[in-house]
Amino acid sequence: MINGETITTDLARITDIGPDRLTELHNRLAAAAQRDGVLDISYRTVDSPVGPLLLAATDQGLIRVAYAVEDHDAVLQHLADKVSPRILRAPTRLDAVARELDEYFTRARRSFDVPLDWRLAAGFRAAVLHHLPEIGYGQTASYAAVAALAGSPKAVRAVGTACAKNPLPVVVPCHRVVRSDGAMGGYLGGPEAKRLLLDLEAAA
Amino acid sequence: MPTTERLLGVKAKPPFESVVRDHGPTVFRVCCAVVGPHDADDAWSETFLAALKAYPELPVDANLEAWLVTIAHHKAIDITRTRTRQPIPTDVVPEPSAPSGARDFVDLAAAVDGLPPKQKHAVAYHYLAGLPYNEIAEILGGTAAAARRAASDGIATLRRTYLGELVEVTAPLKSTGRTPQ
Q1: Which of A51, A73, A105 is the last residue of a domain?
Q2: How much is the average pLDDT of B89-116?
């Protein structure tokens, strides 16, 4: 019995995958899954002036942009619950979005062209979000003005909720919605992020 | 929101990415031991692709590791069958190599490859994947006692073929100060 432990230790050693090979096999899996149409959601993270952003896409388009304060693990779990658990880190499907975000943050782009998957926003919230791109780059609009734009002038609080739950921040510009008294108002990415985005657009 | 759901006792199914992250290395160990290092990549890839396809239908309270090892077991059998090289007959165990000098890990891989399939599977699923014998019995068929016996016979065979009977060898990184004889 003296060497049973040696054997299992050595067995573990000769069957160890190592990080590089695991990464390679993971990438191969993501490619095969995409080829076979079983990769329902791909995601990656990108660094940005407002911190790391999680980007997630279905075959319909970009479904989620998330700030670090939203907790990326929790966001992925929410996607698994609401859309599909067939989720893998697979950067290539998000290359176009990552490039456009990079251009936006370097002031080389004022609007986004990538297809969007609106599945996570429904009803009045979706109606509000669909109108946000009408607020031009570098402009702002009040919550009341957006309510009017969405066809329900009295639904000011609901506009606030729609913005706070925007599944596609930055790309769908809820940061351009501010309070009627000129104060900046809240933001799902935190007030510093909202300030940074408004300053970035104002300086262009 | 997910926190509330968990407080209410509703178990969530994790994103498949965390399944790969948490169980990928263990599944690789199993594949490597069962089909050998050359075919381990293919066995691993086929296992996780099949698992991803079936994942939405898997019950949330399923034992992920046992489920993955079961898939890997079937993929490994397919790969072994289609391999051009015929597997070593099950009733022939390689002769112990001469007990001179320190053994290297190539000897262990060869010794594992030479094990009868049932012993090889039982050793991999118990000692590498950590599955209890009742779950191994479900994968291999037969009883838990038979699975336990197969694993213990497998380790005994490896002790004989890899270490050489009665020869005490300590692992290089785990030296106890004793000199290999």
Answers
A1: A105
A2: 66
Instruction: Give the whole-angstrom CA distance, residue B49 versus residue A47.
Output: 30
Return the pLDDT at B176.
44
Contacting residues of A for B111, CB less than 8 Å apart: none
Do A21 and A92 fall within a single domain? Answer: yes
Task: Clarify whether residues A100 and A8 are in a common domain.
Answer: yes
Average pLDDT per 10 consecutive residues for chain A, totaling 204 residues: 73 92 96 96 97 97 98 97 97 93 97 96 93 96 95 94 97 96 92 96 86
Say yes or no: ipTM exceeds 0.85.
yes
Contact B24 A80 (CB under 8 A): no
CB-CB neighbors (< 8 A) of B107 in chain A: none
Taking the CA atoms of B20, B26, B29 and B33 in sequence, report the sign of the dihedral they define: negative
For an interface test with A, the pick among B1, B23, B26, B52 (most A C-beta atoms closer than 10 Å) comes out as: B52
Number of domains in chain A: 2
Q: Which CATH class is domain B13-84?
A: mainly alpha
A100 shares a domain with A10? yes
> Whole domain around residue A53: which residue ranges?
4-105
Q: Does A20 touch chain B (CB under 8 A)?
A: no
What would the two tokens of residue B156 be?
């005994």
Q: What DSSP string runs through chain B?
A: -HHHHHHTTPPPPPPHHHHHHHHHHHHHHHHHHHH-HHHHHHHHHHHHHHHHHHGGGS-TTS-HHHHHHHHHHHHHHHHHHH-SSPPPPTT--PPPPP--S---HHHHHHHHHTS-HHHHHHHIIIIIT---HHHHHHHH-S-HHHHHHHHHHHHHHHIIIII-TT-----GGG--SPPP-
| Separation of CA A189 from chain center | 11
Asked if residues A30 and A42 have their Cβ atoms less than 8 Å apart, the reply is yes
**Mean residue pLDDT across chain B:** 82
CATH number at B101-167: 1.10.10.10
